[in-house]
Every structure is written in structure tokens, then in C-alpha cells.
Write a structure and sequence with these properties.
It is a single chain. The protein has about 450 residues and is an alpha/beta fold. Helix content is about 45%, strand content about 15%. The chain has 16 helices and 13 strands. Strands 5, 6, 7, 8, 9, 10, 11, 12 and 13 form a nine-stranded mixed beta sheet that branches. Strands 2-3-1-4 form a four-stranded antiparallel beta sheet, covered by helices on one side. Helix 1 runs antiparallel to helix 2, helix 1 packs parallel to helix 3 and helix 1 crosses helix 5. The longest helix is centred in the first third of the chain and has 19 residues. The model has no long low-confidence stretch (mean pLDDT about 95).
Length: about 450
């Protein structure tokens, strides 16, 4: 895309529009599109703005779409999908982002020209001025862009929490940090943040967690490059508490990418003998980089690219004292962080994922020593992937027992605990702690 030195904000809006067009109209992954688009912007503030615009649209697309449906005399044809994405980006800047209206409007109109749509710049200008004047049309909060089949599952699983889950999944989440206790005491790092002008608060129930008052670029975090701190949601940090391996234990992280949970375990106990697996060799490189930044590039962690359920491909037969299975899932508990998940998910995915989860549970159980612990975790809020999966496993596995988890892990589901999106500022997450008899 050509530069526009006269309107530097126009290029940012044009890139956001092209990213949204790919995600909304061509079924592409937001993460993948941003990974391609953002390097074109040298300024970190511009990159952050592109991300913010895309997330604002994808968390609440019906609000912006209602304005287009009400104000335009006829729907835009498919060939104008890029223009439609630009209009959604423009509306999102006015509400919910609340950017200065003049700057947002002018830059978005110029972006239309930059995208080769000078003949439609007047339409962009008119629609955004109306939004500036009248505000966006009211939308029934009970309506959602989640597909109807998924809303049906959600309502069945959580009838009393249904509206709250949808509402919490549509808002911007807080930014949580995990302090590397191998390098810093949490209070000491919070003081470093304060000296850098970054306000944060500690959580009594999470030993390593800090919650920022406002999100910040990681480059602004003191010591981030040296592994002093990592970005990790509060609910994900609880996984280490659920596993709680004994000092020096032999531990398996079976689906390890991008490596945050492996790093957290080693930060707590550097004597652990940890094996980290991932089926994708490229993703395993992210685990390697994560561990290196945290200070664990000294060979104490063994990394292998393999299907965790194919034991012949990677397991040496030596049992593990503790196994973490952070299983592939629908990601319905983290929609506020991955808002395109519900756009791309299909009903058949849930059954397919459930089969993968069961296959992993059955295989990994064989690697666990008698008396050992396996933690099954997902970032899903669907019973089919969580409590139903664990109940079925217990029914077919004679030597498996449930180890109870306390209320800090969420709602009691008898065979595990469930946290819902937004509770205590964290993501939706499920935890079950299973012990092998003997």
C-alpha cells in the first residue's frame, strides 16, 4: 500500500480495513492477518491503533452493521466488501473507541482514496458524519453475532449466565502480567512499574499476577526483554496452581505452545525436569523463544515436536509425576481476546475437538506415574469439552480419581471448576485435577 505522508493516519485505517475485510468476508484468521499487516507500520502506536480498530469491530460487529443497514438505501455488493470494512472501522473509531471525531473522520475518508475508492469517499464522509451527529442506532443487547447453534449450546449450558457471558465476551479485557519470581519479587516489580509511570494492582489469589490499570505495549514494561515479566491472563496463570508439581518433579506440558505455562512452572521451580511438546514444529519455536526470554535456554527443558497422543513418536517410557494437558478447544472462553473465533467456528468443530481431547486424555494417562497428577484445562466454556469430557474419561478409566480444586478456580462442576469470561477480570477457563490411583 502506498504511503500517504499528507495524511499519516489514512494508511493505518486502510490497513485496518483490509485486515477486517479478510477476516469478515474471506474467513481469514485475525492473528494471521495482523502478523502480515503490522510489520508494514514502523510506529508501534500505529500498529496498536490497527489492532484496536480491528478488535473494536470484531467484538461488537452488530452495532456497526446496524448503522449500515439503517442508513444505506441498499446493501453494498460483494465487490465493495473492502469499503464495507472501512465503514465499520470508521464507525468503531467514533463508538466504542471514542477517538477524536475530526481526526478519525478525516483519516478514514482519506483511507478510502488510498484504497483506490476516491469515488466513494463522499459516502464514507456522509455516513461517518451522521454517526458523529446521531450516534449509532440502538441494538437489542440480547442479539449477538455468535452463530445460532453456538448460542443454543451456551444457553443450554449456562441459562442463568447466558446474557452476562455474551456481554463480557464483547468488552476489552484487562492486561495481566505474570512476574517471573526467579528474577523478581512481585512487590519489587510493581515498584519498577510505578517508577516507569505504570499503575498496577496485585491479586490476593494469584501469587505472580499484576493487573495493569491500562494496557501498555510490552516494550514499555521494565525488563520485559530480559524475562522479568510476561503477559498472561489471570485464568491461565491459575493452571500452575492447579498442577502444583512437587519440587524436582518430572513434568510434561503436552500442548505447550506458545510456552507461557511451561515458563511459569519453571519460574516457580527451576529444578523441574520439564518436557514440552507441540504438534507444530513452528509453534514449538515460539515455546523455545518464550523459555529463552524467561531465562530457561540452558537445556533444562526438553522440547519435542510431536503429536502428544502418538506415544511411540516421542515417549521414552519413563513416567511423569505431573502432566499438563491444556487441550485444543473451541476457545469460547477467550472470545474477548480472539473475537474472530465465533465467526469461523462450525458446529461440527465441537464434536471433532471432543474426539481429539478424549484421544489425548487416554494416551497421556498412560505416561503418568501411579500417584501422579494430570491437569486437564481448556479455555472453553462449553460442557461438552469440559465436565462432560472429564466424566466420560472417569467412566472408562478405572484408576482415575478427581482431586478437588478450591473455589478460587471457579464454579464447582463436581469433576472440575469453571471460570466464566470476566469473572475477577479473567478469561473463561476450565480446570480438572485427576490423580492416578496406586
Amino acid at each position: 500500500m502506498p504511503a500517504d505522508d499528507g495524511h499519516p493516519g489514512a494508511r493505518v485505517r486502510a490497513i485496518a480495513a483490509r485486515t477486517l475485510d479478510a477476516v469478515l468476508h474471506r474467513g481469514r484468521s485475525l492473528k494471521a492477518e495482523l502478523a502480515t499487516a503490522l510489520p508494514a507500520l514502523a510506529d508501534s502506536r500505529d500498529r496498536a491503533l490497527v489492532e484496536a480498530i480491528c478488535f473494536a469491530v470484531l467484538r461488537q460487529p452488530l452495532r456497526m452493521e446496524a448503522a449500515l443497514n439503517e442508513w444505506m438505501p441498499r446493501p453494498l455488493p460483494p465487490r465493495d466488501s473492502e469499503l464495507r470494512a472501512l465503514l465499520l472501522a470508521g464507525l468503531a473509531q467514533l463508538d466504542p473507541m471514542q477517538l477524536p471525531a475530526h481526526a478519525a473522520l478525516d483519516a478514514t475518508v482519506q483511507a478510502a482514496r488510498l484504497l483506490g475508492r476516491a469515488h466513494q469517499a463522499g459516502l464514507v464522509n456522509a455516513l461517518l458524519r451522521r454517526a458523529q451527529r446521531d450516534g449509532l442506532p440502538a441494538v437489542d443487547p440480547r442479539h449477538s453475532h455468535w452463530p445460532s447453534w453456538l448460542r443454543g449450546m451456551l444457553r443450554k449450558d449456562w441459562p442463568e449466565r447466558y446474557d452476562e457471558i455474551l456481554a463480557q465476551s464483547a468488552v476489552e479485557p484487562p492486561m495481566w502480567l505474570r512476574v517471573n519470581r526467579a528474577q523478581n519479587a512481585r512487590d519489587n516489580y510493581m515498584q519498577r512499574l510505578a517508577e516507569a509511570g505504570i499503575a498496577a494492582s496485585a491479586s490476593d489469589g494469584l501469587a505472580d499476577a499484576l493487573r495493569l490499570d491500562e494496557p501498555r505495549a510490552v516494550a514499555a514494561l521494565p525488563g520485559f526483554a530480559d524475562g522479568a515479566v510476561s503477559v498472561q491472563d489471570a485464568s491461565a496463570q491459575r493452571v500452575a496452581d492447579a498442577l502444583a508439581p512437587a519440587p524436582g518433579a518430572r513434568v510434561l506440558d503436552a500442548c505447550a505452545a506458545p510456552g507461557g505455562k511451561s515458563a511459569h512452572l519453571l519460574e516457580r521451580d527451576g529444578s523441574l525436569r520439564l518436557t514440552a511438546l507441540d504438534v507444530d514444529a513452528a509453534r514449538l519455536q515460539r515455546v523455545r523463544a518464550t523459555l529463552a526470554r524467561a531465562g530457561f535456554d540452558d537445556g533444562r527443558a526438553q522440547l519435542q515436536a510431536a503429536d502428544a497422543a502418538d506415544l511411540d513418536a516421542w515417549w521414552d517410557g519413563a513416567p511423569f509425576d505431573a502432566v499438563l494437558l491444556d487441550a485444543p478447544c473451541s476457545a469460547t472462553g477467550i472470545v474477548r481476546r480472539q473475537p474472530d473465533v465465533v465467526l469461523h467456528r462450525r458446529e461440527s468443530d465441537i464434536a471433532a475437538l471432543s474426539l481429539v481431547q478424549a484421544r489425548l486424555l487416554d494416551a497421556l494417562w498412560r505416561t503418568l506415574a501411579p500417584g501422579g497428577v494430570l491437569v486437564y484445562a481448556t479455555c472453553s466454556i462449553l460442557k461438552a469439552e469440559n465436565e462432560d469430557q472429564v466424566r466420560a474419561f472417569l467412566a472408562r478409566t478405572d484408576d482415575a480419581r478427581i482431586d478437588p480444586l478450591g473455589p478460587a478456580f471457579g464454579h464447582d462442576r463436581e469433576v472440575g471448576r469453571q471460570r466464566l469470561p470476566g469473572e475477577d477480570g479473567g478469561d473463561g477457563f476450565f480446570y480438572a485435577r485427576l490423580r492416578r490411583a496406586g
